[in-house]
Fold these 3 entries.
Entry 1:
Amino acid sequence: MPLDVNGKSYETDEEGYLANLNDWNEDVAAALAAADDAELTESHWEVINFLREYYEEYQIAPAVRVLTKAIGKKLGKDKGNSKYLYELFPYGPAKQACKYAGLPKPTGCV
Amino acid sequence: MSDTKKFVYINRKAPYGTVYALESLEVVLIGAAFEQEVQLVFVDDGVYQLTKGQNTDGIGMKNFSKTYSALGDYDVNQIYVDEQSLKDRGLTMDDLQELTYEDEDDDWAEKSSMKLINREQLAELIDEADVLLNF
Amino acid sequence: MSTLHTVNKSPFERNSLNTCLSVVRGDSTVLLIEDGVAGALQNTTASASISDAMGKGVKFAVLGEDLDARGLAADRVIDGVSVVDYAGFVQLAADHDNVQSWL
């Protein structure tokens, strides 16, 4: 099912993940979130941008345990815990945040 | 943690020509979720997986050599490289990426994950493994 | 008849290169591609066999894109082995009468 943003159509897979990493931009992210009835706040963007940087460096989306630890290191302990991350991304921080970041599902996520 | 098992992954294939190297890496990352003791061995053409400066733009494949640097984050920090395999291929440890981890028990000091081993040490790793996975 | 021989297997894992070198003739070219590029490097256990064949007049080439992917710099390649790109690969195929792929 294609995702329409600003008059452009983007290819997604059957779970709504962006098919092509390079199609991503902030408007696309907002539209991906809107499709889940979610709205992106500053706190969401912090995690999304972190994931994009992580992917750029390591070519993978981190597992949730790794994400939590790394967020804690970068953004502080009050954010590097699963309670905080699950509040932001109730469908699972790795899975849902990766989706809005335009990344593939984390390796090992079924 | 008495039920922790020792998983030894033996990597013997060059990257990109076949899918073994990437498959192994994915299994290691998935397996890391189970919090077992993990050791990675690079022997024979497997040593090519860790070379520095890989650039796959020309062959149109994903450069997954960058992903090995994330292994430390996944608590995979026992990486063994067979000395003889390097030598047979005209390579040294200087030709390989430096993989590190942060030691939680030592104020997060950055330490090397890599160790050069000989065949006797490889025999010992195999001998002491609970689970052997070959790629 | 001149033949372009391509070898895409590592000489340390398969005997494709060895078999190729045992039949290759002086007017032919051996092109190393994919995992086969490992054979083009200096100071390996396979280097001598390439140099020997070169002494008999066989020409050697290696695909640069496959070297790059594996982090193997062109300056590590055995002297006399030319580094070619995909266009060079096509040119070699066109320059020879036939292509034998040692898979």
Note: The two ends of chain B are 28 Å apart (CA to CA).
Entry 2:
Amino acid sequence: MKINNKLIFAVAFSLILTSCADKLDVKPVDDVDAISAVKTSSDVEALLTGAYDSMTDADVLGGNLQRDAELIGDNGDIEWQGTFVAPGEIFEKTLLKTNGQAQATWLDSYRTINIVNNVLANLTVVDAAKKARFEGEAKLIRAWMHFELVRVFAKTYQDGTPASNPGVPIVTVPTAKITDANFVSRNTVAEVYQAVIADLTSAETLLPAKNSFFANKSTAAALLSRVYLMQANYDAARQAANRVITTGNYTLTETFDLAFNNPTNSTEDIFAAQGTDQDYVNSLNTFFGSTAYSGRGDIIINDQHLNSYDVSDERSNFFYQSGDIYTAKWMRLVANIPLIRLAEMYLTRAEGNFRLGGTPVGTTALADINRLRNRAGAKLYTSVDLPTILKERRFELAFEGHRIHDIKRNKQTIIKKSGSTSLSWAFNSPKLIFPIPLRETDVNKNLTQNEGYQ
Amino acid sequence: MNKHLLFSLLLFFSCSLSIIAQDRRITGKVVSAGDGSPLPGVSVQIKGTIKGTSTDATGNYAVSVPAGKSILEIRSVGFNPQSLQIGSQSIINITLVESENSLDEVVVVGYGTQKKSNLTGNVAQISSKSIENLPVLSTEQAIQGRAAGVFVESGNGKVGQGIKMRIRGASSVSAGNEPLYVIDGIPMTTSAAGSAPNTPNPMADINFNDVESIEILKDASAAAIYGARGSNGVVLLTTKRGKSGKTSINLNYFSGISEATGHRQFLNTAQYTELFTEARVNSGFSVAGGENRFTRYAVGEKARWSDPTSAKYTNTNWEDQVFRKGSINQLDLNISGGTDKTKFYASGSYSKQDGILIKNSFERISSRLNLDHKVSDKVTIGINASVARTFNTRLSNDNAFSTPLQIIALAPMAPVIDPRSGDYSNTYNGADVTQYYNPLVNIDNSSNTTETYRTLGNVYGQWNIIPALSFRTEYGFDMSFRNDDQYFGKKTVRNSTQPNGEVYKNNANIFNYNTNNFLTFNKIFDQKHDLNVIAGMSYQQSKRTSVDATGRNLPSDAYKTIASGATKAEANSFERTFTFLSYFSRLNYKFDNKYLLGLSGRVDGSSRFGANNRYGFFPAASVGWILSEESFLKNVRQVSFLKVRASYGFTGNAEINNFGSLGLYSAQNADGNSAGYAGIPGQRPSQLENPDLKWEKTAQTDIGLEVGFFNNRISAEVDYYTKHTTDLLLNVNIPGTSGFGQLLKNVGELENRGWEFVLRTDNSFGDLKWRTSFNAATNANKILNLQGQVITGGFLNRAVEGQPLGVFVGPEYAGVDPANGDALYYKNTTKADGSMDKTTTNDVNLAENTPIGNPNPKWIGGITNDFNYKGIDFSFTFQGVYGNDVYNGAGKFMSANGDFYDNQTLDQLNRWKKAGDITNVPQARYVGGNGTAESSRYLEKASYTRLKTVSIGYLLPKSITDRLKLTKVRIYATANNLLTFTKYTGWDPEVNTDYLTGVAAGNDFYSAPQPKTITVGLNLGF
């Protein structure tokens, strides 16, 4: 009897011991194992969509890149009065190596690049009909990220020798695990521009003319016009801009205000970050919007800027008062963020045509500039020169993230009055370049630090 | 492997003994020496066997003594044990003396108990008596300052929020550092279900008045039985159980008030206008611009700041507006009793606490039933069950403009109520009035609550197979259903960004179950070999799910549900499961009452570990020598007890992400939103795999000495330990160019070393009973290796090689240049000759970051004195923390010499004004950034000593209670945090802001101070 009891017990006990072992293999529910995530064409499509989401993250094109271009390029037109430390440093042009925004911009841009590199590596499973489009979109996104990175973290193209100036690492291989190959070095500025142009040129060939609100042929051309403009390659820039304009797929909105705060793309949006009730990012609203309009009210517009417009110009009234003065471009939290508007193409074509002289591409600089002034109800010009073209660019594109890049490519000096003191920064001042984030130089000794941050 | 070996061994033992010879019967009665009352539930054992019984309700017992056995051992918690020669009597009456000697206490050690004197590991024990009815919410708060080497920190005075506990320092950088909590054998869920850093404290769901004893397993030999989760120490909670005998009913009620322990002083209107006008002038800005700003704050009425004679002149002390008198009320009722066969303990409790800040309260209603039933001589079964509902009215985290204490940033000339709107000064006609959102708007226009239902239960069965061998099986669960509700009305738009209101709801459930099955073998061979062996297994599975959603655009403020929102946005779900499968064994051997040996081991498998490292083995060994039992000391009357012990062993830390080893894709982006775009589904690679991932391993050495003098009237314990942690689970930074920021890997080492001292004295004389208990501990933490990685967190916290975890690293502030009022910093660059360049610079970017402080205390300690004189009891506890620094992350806003319009701390008036001024506060410069960089300027010594608890009570004499037909009447008053001694100038030195995570530690950021609470109470026994 006793022995029997023990036997039963022993058996029961051993059962308890063994029955649980397979329970250690718990599968995630919220996420998917990497091995089974990218198997079909629609898996790749989801990955590509994920890249758009990642590219329009707040720290990238969801607004902070544009905000920071305005802050660091400011000469007293605006005032940063927020409590966030990182944009404060950017506004003061006194970034530390630890600047949180520099780090976030770096990380999130390369995260986006890794996603599209995964798309490109998995094109073999994509339906034949979609392959060219996916490849084109992926290359465009990769180019856009590299372009923003090189503009923010490296000397501008026209500063010294781009062929030897350190740019940013070009990454074209998806990461499956960390190996020595991941400890990349900085490519030169010229190499990065070359890679960007190669990706965009290829994308322009691969992409369809229309592609819902995703990137299309014109997006690639429009980006190319920006890239060439930074290189002072005015002919290529005006040609690219002209290609976009002549598609006839885009028209200026009837009035200036209709180009902003839209829930869907306006007629002049060549590419816009999409915001829906369910899923939106709009950090331009967060920082430029007053607290009455869902923002933090951190960036106020100074009289210096307000007084620079013609009175008749509708754009001079595109501001609102909410305690302080704010721009009306970013009044809505849930709205698309125009990233490339047709107006920019006119401005680029006009600038290229004016600078090169001779037979204009498309139409004359004067006609393009007046087209925009006419839309804004501003007095039309009878003739234009470079300063008026650049001024027009400022009126039209203010607070959309072009500020510092226009200053750098035009080799302008920022002169800013702060109380009794007056400070100035040359276009190639190291203070106008973000530091390579300290975490990156700490972890990857192959990355060299920028001048002024060693 | 070893589990099978052990199991066979146990079976061998159990089969090899069992002959029972002729017995004889002994009966008697056990009474208390104090009042002669019969003592029920006293254990009466026959020495050398596990045969025995316990006394019934009237203190009587009957036991059969096998032939050849001659000694009765009588034990009852709280009384000195006795051993009696049986001789030829058949009736033996026994008188037990109340214990004054902690060495004979039984200590819960995990899967069993041990006599304290036999311990070879380091276990701190806290009895329920010492903490009952303290006016705090959770167990960790109650034991603050009462156990050596146990550091408890309430980071914030907001009620219901999590508490930090570190046992012998932090053993991990990236993984959890909180101990494992085990209640009645079941590992509890202690991490909150939400994701916000200021989450409610799951420990607050437990009414600690139901807890009989708290044991804290500190060294490896004690904690290794919990294997992969023992590195941070283990806290064992044992709930109260019934005793057979007369049913006793205990009713306790207390009520009290609370207020903030500290306040800060800010500028008044005259000082504010003076400083900011000066700041603007110094920076070349117009005076008029500043005056416009003052008038804007003063709701458009200049007289409010410019004309002290005006009736309108305003001087608002904003801090006063968010502090209030808190209150606490608690009612506890418990009933216990039973028969020989069935015992029960039942309790119910209601507690309500209103915090010292507006809109912050906590309410708990809980009950518990513990039952034990003897099915037969050999089989006992039992059940423990508790249910609780808690309701926490919560506050935003410290980093939100809506958190109450951020109100101090508002200018003093703003009236509380804006007469134009009749509402709190905030905005008027769509334009901002105050510089920042006014947190008072939240009072009437928002809510933020968490309701939790928590059920803990377990059933057990124990089978005494043969006298020496028993089998126990336990099945327990810990379920929590939590509901977070937040509502923000239209008027909060300035803070919520939602012009038409927002509602948020989160439902989170955790089902955590566990089974333990183990054998216990207990036998004394030849009077000299005392052997205790356990072996068994346990399995735990915990599943956590949650669903949350947001509704926006509500028709009016009357609508407060998601259903009413025109927009339903940001719906999310979450599901995670983890499992642990474990085999464990422990052997304790005592030879000749002098020589102690302990061996233990646990094999832990977990779903959290990588496929290549599923199981870990955690062994420990310990030895002890009771010198006082040796002949050369036995006759030294002064030395009543002397033991040395040493232990070495390994424990683990598995508090990591549930799927940290897997390569993952996610449909959520890095911000936790959809990885889709404009409604089109998307995914992204979210995590790189690491199949080699495993637990952190801590090797711990402990050497201890325990000594008792004069019949243990003075007893002391000294321990020295080292904890060496390797294979740190670290979110290692990887090049961001890879598309990933971090990878969870096992790299790096850190160590903790420290001393622990415990001294207990009994200073009683005559009718005065007076006991003192003192503890103190040092801990030095040092990171030995992070593979060169530097992990940053908080404002200036870092994990960096050669420094303690969380060390503050930053520019060293050098004061103010007397010539021009510039803030100066030491360059601290290393010169060619290796020395530090101690010259100064006014450019903070040229100042090298250097270690400037340590958030970890060098010393912690506490001292408790208990007095009892003829029914009057008095006790007090001082608790202290020494040698740590606190960084005021809000210094750059509130102590920034007028850099921006935030109201400034009073000390900013000492700013530099003219050449030659010697001061530590730089010249006031509006937006000048003069000295506002993060630096040692905002770092302060934060040592403190607190009168943690003081209580006085009076027990009515028996003659009166008898007349009232009661068994006990005690009235008492208790004060918590009554006095705080510190040089820290902030609100409270015990601070750790609730919005920073990771290596952040010791940061103050508008954090609420601790409450100072005074209660009076009544305790009745029926």
Note: Chain A has one domain: 37-443.
Entry 3:
Amino acid sequence: MSFFADIKALILGFWTTLRHLGRRSATIQYPEEKRSPFPRFRARIVLTRDPDGEERCVACYLCSAACPVDCISMQSAERPNGRRYAAWFRINFSRCIFCGLCAEACPTMAIQMTPDYEICKRDVMDLVYEKEDLLIDGCGKDPDYNFYRHSGIGVVNPRGGNPDENPPLDVRSLLP
Amino acid sequence: MPKLVIDTIELEVPAGTLILEAARSVGIMIPHFCYHPALGNAGACRVCAVKLIDGPVKGIQMSCMTPVQEGMVVSTTDADAVAMRRHVIEWLMINHPHDCPVCDEGGECLLQDYTIAAGHGTRRYQGKKRTHSNQYLGEHVQHEMNRCIQCYRCVRFYQDFAGGTDLGVMGRASTIYYGRFCEGSLESPFSGNLPDLCPTGVYTDKAARFRARYWDYDMAPSLCPHCSLGCATIPAARYRELLKIMARRNDAVNGWFLCDRGRFADHGVNSPERPRTPLLDGRETTWDEALAVLATRIGELFVSHGPGSLAVVGSPRLTLEGNYQAALLAEFLQAGALCYFVERDEAAAASAVVSLLTGDTAVSLAEVEQADCIALVECDLREQGPMLLLAVRQAWRKGAKIFLVGEGSPREQTDSVSLETLRVPTLADIPLADYSTPLVIATPSGSGTADIETAVTAGAKLVFPLSGPNTFAAALLTREHRATSLAEALASGTIKGLLAFEADLPEELLSGISLLAVADRFPSAAMIKSDVFLPTTAWVEMDGTFINHEGRAQRFRKVMNPGLPIKGLDPALHPPRVHRLDAPGGEPRPAWRIIADLAERLGAEQLVEPLSGRWEFLRDLDPEGEGERIL
């Protein structure tokens, strides 16, 4: 009986091959031909700007704390108007594992993952991106969010000027 | 002693203990904002709610306001108590500006911790937030009143504990405001404790504003090098830059706090002027060459003038390790002189202190707080040891009488902590025998200690605020190794060579010196004149030991590696993009290591442990402990 079973298996195998001959190939000719990844694909990291065009990043160090491979480093600083920003911001893409924890940790939606997966350099130092390489001229995802219009310490809006705030109190007044 | 049960743990605590403290003694942490071990309770924040299930009182109570009573059964995990704490956190967050990413307290914030612990994640309150204007509080403390949760810790410390008069609480109910009546610098010499005390980010440290997060700091248990009290500190560094200094708890010395000098005074660690490479006749060189040339020149000096022409100089700011190695080097080379003090008076005063202080007469800062009569003799503690003033104030709050003796004790010092004092012309005018624990705080002096000796016979304890962090050890070593003052040694005219380790050499003493070797971390006139200059590490860049004013040896740990801060390096926009194994400017070495290396080149044995012989017992000193009294 095993003789007929073997013949059957042989024919089945050849039939499967024959059937696939007529199908379209799944292989694409990269790099001439490219597939577009899904919008939430996690590749090259960018720093975005808020709807007013200012840098969203406040250099709070949460991304560098969340990063499991320690590839993010930065130095925070203060602008004359009290706005906190990153004096420098560095991501070492030769070490990055594109896990997306930094983007998840970011409280201001500044750091975001893009679907640009083509990061390949001849010199490893070219994979160390500085702030000027990371900062883009757009909001990326969540285009309406502006952290400083929600946090009530008066940097973008005047103190007590956010929609959910009352104006500052006069502490010397005894009126209720 | 009442017995009670907290979360199934039976315990017996002294009467008067608060439930919160009793729970902590068995490892149960009840959340709290307004309670602080040094400041006591206020019952202001309502977040330490527990449920008393059985006993004389029942129901939900604030654990920081309820002393334990016999038969209490306390539950910290009862559903009612947990719900109460959750609701309290929720209303504390009602007016919070939600700005944690740009708040320096973020990461070390009690409010953040307890909000997360309470599980409050979604804002339900639809009303508007109350906001405040901030004040300029000087160059050290940043004010952000919107973050306030009204725990009263700041004013309780500032007014009650430290006797400050210019920061208080204004308004009422939901308009409560902590600040000055008018904008301006905080006047108390202890204002720097506000950032440490504030459970949220109302007061933050301006020096380290927007520089780093708590989890990124390089930190280690350390000591304050600015006076002889030996207060415990935690220096915080990041990217090779010393950012700020926080108080560390040491119940025997500084308690929980630190003075503004210890916190904000210039320490020179990050200074661009700081010498970081060895210099040979004014040009930069390597350690190998500098030490080899120094060894050769010492040999030449010995050939031309004999070993008696060399003086080895330690100092009151050099560690015990360095000072002891300096003594061993002087012995090994049979040097003509070993000096720890420059001026004759200084040496005489220090030796008078070590002869007057004994295990019976010396007291710690914690014991100063227990005194019932304190005489400040010819001293200004604002300069000589501000934390002593804070300790004196605690004694005064407990009822001690404070006397100012002599014209050299200005009233402004006690006014800065709001003390009532009596002025008397001499120490003999105070009836010390009428008090049970009298205390004399006096500027050390080489002459006229008769008054103080009389006071000791009347039962007085003694505190001498000394000049440097390690003056006591320098004085002990002076006695044990028969050292002299540098002025005295040079007066003989036989000294032709100086090996000075972290000593402040006055320029006029240096004429007639043919070989000058200086090891220091500060730039000085002596550095420019020196034939060989060797850079030393700052106290935060090394392990070491200081002996404080009462003879308490304390260990400090290395916080950071020496090196030029990344801030200020070229290019300015970001750190350099080149690989290096060693940090630029990372060449300074601990002074004791330099002495040992030099001794090795001169033929001594290789040194492994800097503390040996008489000091061997200090090798395993615990840097996080209270230190060890050596008297």
Note: The CA atoms of residues 40 and 60 of chain A lie 24 Å apart.
